[in-house]
TrEMBL record:
Residue ranges of the TM segments: 109-127, 147-172, 179-196, 208-227, 239-260, 299-320, 390-410
Any Pfam family: VKGC_lumenal_dom
Chief subcellular location: membrane
Chain intervals with Polar residues compositional bias: 44-56
Descriptive protein name: HTTM-like domain-containing protein
Signal peptide coordinates: none
Compartments reported by the entry: Endomembrane system
Keywords, ordered alphabetically: Disulfide bond, Lyase, Membrane, Transmembrane, Transmembrane helix
KW Transmembrane (keyword) present: yes
Protein source organism: Stichopus japonicus (Sea cucumber)
Source lineage: Eukaryota, Metazoa, Echinodermata, Eleutherozoa, Echinozoa
Residue intervals of the HTTM-like domain: 103-323
Source taxon at top rank: Eukaryota
Length: 759
């Protein structure tokens, strides 16, 4: 028989080899372990922890104790974290637990209400910022230049563009009411991004956000509550939706605000130089109806477009998913009983139910009173607690989309060609309102190498926007487009030189592009820095406070422009004949003023002043080794003279702007309307009268005018779209032909400059 037949005795034998114990044989022949005399003495002298076994046990005990403390702390944190964020640390420690977290069931009511509100606002957006009422203005003239993200994206003929807008509108309406929901989302999403990518000059953060939200709405089950689809298909009516359908929308809204907050750590924003006169945008018209002035709007509200209204509705996404049902149940019984889908939702195969008791038969009358739902069989119930490919897709899509949205706002180190004084591409950085631009002077010079002919072009002749002036990619696109137009007009070998002066966030006016660079052949790459970009004169940023003080000290009838230029360059400027009292004052550095008409050069240093003649060119050369700073002071003498003549006219005929019958009194006057001076006086009076009437208009009248304006936009959109569909389907006259005929008739009345197809 073995001496130690069990495991305990075997371990005792191993311990005896180290003389920690001694083995005594019992009468029965079995061995037993007792502590050896040597070990007893050691333990008595040094204590029990001097042995290697005791040290090891102590370490294990301490490690176990620390582990228990961490677990206890985690256990204390988890309930709080679960209450605040809806999940715990354990939920993201493994792929299975993360999939389970992302596919937990939630009530579809909150998502359904959000779908209705978002869809409705996107219907309004079609008529507002997508530009449906004025699509003929934008796409009828074949001579206009466009600025797509990729040059292969080109606009369709104007009649077909109206078809694109019609599809966009149908998709927005279908999304709103939940009719053929997935198809409607695609009908909205594809035209939206086509129109968005077609013109970079209209890009802004909230338009980009609307496109992202529409993309997300395509993937979520937002038609499970209060939708036409749910009425027609009882199997999807009021059923659970996975939690990631809410989480991904919440994440997107969170990132907008969070990253925008990080971007606003910019010093210009913190010091208050970024925002000026935002209240002039149309979006604030409803606030004017309740009596807010532009100053109040500038102070309280900082966003543009439909963005504030959309973001107000997004707050509903952060409510408990079943908040609409709880709200509607508090309505009177006679009303609440008529509302469908107020009961608890049924199970969905898009969700995973963690515990078997969560899988139950759906309640009766989930959608409508007369509706009966099929019961889950035992096999289908068991499948509700298993993962499918859809559940893995939801979790992967959430991770992938989150990663992309965290990376894009800080990806400008890749797309360096779109960077200038600020980082581009513009739109996805969430840096809204951080930069304010003021373009003061633009000069576009052409030279025909074949004939040595030189001249100047109107920089806005082939475009209706000036946003291209501040972005290198659009400057390159525009100069290439202008070169093609010049080829059509007989200029064989055109070269173009561009000189643009602008101010960012209240700084000096300075040039942004190198004026000596030939733009048609200039190098530009989306992945390399633009070599012809002039640096922002950040060393002069501290001047802004002083410039504001100088401007405040000037009389109200005096205007001022502050200029800074680089050493070795010069500004070619022309004093308008209307500016009869113009002077130049040097603030810093040394300059040389060249006046070609007088054949005179004047050297000037800091503090010097010179008066400039109206109707003449002059060149300001920077001759110092550092940038020069100077300012123009000028008075619009023509405007002052007109105001004086208006005052004399009103006094001569005993008229005042406070007279409520001023319009009728003007109509009764017998004046010579063929005299241009009299016509100019009357136009000025009616303009001032219009402004006075706006200030004195009641809120009710403002609401009426607001609704009339929106009805006019709707009416114009319907009229133009009907003409376009008539042309496409029945071969009627094109919207473009009608628009060009109207423009030609208007040009004949106004006697403007020659059309764009003439140089």
């Amino acid at each position: 028989m073995p001496l130690f037949p069990d495991r305990r005795q075997y371990l005792c034998k191993r311990a005896a080899r180290n003389r920690w114990v001694k083995i005594e044989t019992m009468a029965s022949g079995k061995g037993t372990c007792i502590l050896s005399q040597k070990q007893k003495e050691i333990s008595k002298t040094n204590g029990p922890n001097t042995s290697r076994g005791s040290t090891s046990n102590k370490r294990k005990s301490e490690k176990y104790k620390q582990t228990q403390e961490v677990k206890q702390e985690t256990a204390n944190i988890s309930p709080k974290m679960k209450k605040i964020f809806g999940f715990t640390v354990e939920d993201i420690t493994s792929w299975s637990r993360f999939k389970l977290l992302m596919n937990q069931p939630r009530d579809p009511a909150g998502l359904g209400i959000w779908r209705i509100l978002f869809g409705f606002l996107m219907v309004l957006d079609v008529f507002q910022e997508r530009g449906l009422p004025f699509a003929d203005d934008k796409f009828s003239d074949p001579n206009l230049c466009f600025f797509p993200l990729f040059n292969f994206i080109t606009p369709l003929p104007v009649d077909w563009m109206y078809l694109v807008y019609l599809i966009l509108l149908i998709g927005a309406i279908g999304m709103c009411i939940g009719l053929f929901y997935r198809v409607s989302c695609l009908l909205y999403l594809i035209p939206y991004w086509y129109i968005f990518l077609l013109d970079k000059t209209t890009w802004n953060n909230h338009s980009y956000l609307f496109g992202l939200t529409a993309f997300l709405m395509t993937f979520v089950d937002a038609n499970r509550f209060w939708s036409v689809d749910a009425i027609w298909n009882k199997n999807i009516c009021n059923v659970h939706v996975p939690v990631w359908h809410y989480a991904i929308l919440r994440l997107q809204i969170f990132l907008v605000y969070f990253i925008a907050g990080l971007k606003k750590l910019d010093l210009d924003w913190v010091q208050g130089f970024s925002m000026e006169e935002l209240s002039i945008n149309w979006v604030f018209d409803p606030f004017r109806l309740i009596g807010l002035s532009n100053t109040h709007i500038d102070y309280f509200i900082v966003h543009l477009g439909l963005f504030p209204y959309v973001m107000l509705t997004t707050s509903l996404v952060f409510f408990y998913p079943d908040w609409p049902k709880k709200l509607f149940k508090k309505l009177p019984a006679s009303l609440s009983t008529r509302l469908p889908s107020l009961t608890a939702p049924a199970q969905s195969f898009h969700c995973v139910y963690q515990r078997p008791h969560e899988i139950r038969n759906p309640p009766k009358s989930t959608c409508l009173k007369t509706e009966k739902r099929p019961n889950h069989s035992s096999s289908s119930s068991s499948s509700l607690s298993k993962f499918t490919k859809y559940h893995s897709f939801g979790a992967l899509f959430f991770i992938f989309y989150t990663s992309i949205q965290l990376f894009l706002p800080y990806s400008h180190f890749i797309t360096q060609g779109f960077n200038n004084w600020t980082n581009g591409l513009y739109g996805y950085s969430w840096d809204m309102m951080v930069h304010t631009w003021n373009v003061q002077h633009t000069k576009l010079r052409f030279l025909d190498k074949a004939s040595d002919k030189e001249g100047y072009l109107s920089p806005d002749y082939w475009t209706e926007t000036n946003r291209w002036k501040t972005h290198a990619d659009m400057v390159k696109q525009y100069t290439t487009c202008v070169a093609n137009k010049l080829h059509q007009l007989g200029v064989e070998e055109p070269t173009l030189y561009l000189d643009i002066w602008l101010s960012m966030n209240g700084r000096f006016q300075q040039r942004i592009w190198n004026p000596d660079t030939e733009m048609i052949t200039a190098e530009w790459s989306p992945f390399k820095p633009t070599p012809w970009l002039m640096p922002l004169l950040t060393d002069l940023s501290d001047w802004r406070t002083k410039l504001a003080e100088i401007e405040e000290q000037l009389d109200s009838h005096i205007d001022v422009t502050f200029v800074a230029d680089f050493p070795g360059l010069f500004l070619e400027n022309f004093v308008d004949p209307h500016l009869g009292n113009t002077s130049l004052h040097v603030l810093s550095g040394n300059i040389l003023v060249e006046i070609p008409a007088q054949k005179k050069n004047v050297s000037m240093a800091m503090g010097d002043t010179i008066k400039l003649s109206a109707g003449e060119f002059h060149n300001v050369h920077t001759v110092s080794s550092t940038p020069s700073c100077y300012m123009y002071l000028f008075v619009n003498t023509t405007r002052a003279l007109i105001n004086q003549r208006v005052a004399e006219f009103m006094e001569q005929h005993n008229l005042t702007f406070e007279d409520p019958d001023l319009t009728a009194s003007l109509a009764e006057l017998h004046v010579n309307t063929s005299d241009p001076e009299v016509v100019q006086i009357l136009e000025t009076i009616f303009l001032k009268l219009h402004n006075v009437n706006i200030l004195n208009t009641s809120s009710l009248d403002k609401i009426q005018l607001f609704l009339q304006e929106k009805f006019h936009l709707l009416q114009r959109s319907a009229s133009r779209m009907g003409q376009a569909m008539n042309h496409i389907l029945l071969g009627g006259e094109s919207v473009g032909a009608l628009y060009m005929a109207e423009m030609e008739a208007q040009n004949e009345d106004d006697n403007p400059s020659p059309p764009r197809d003439e140089l």
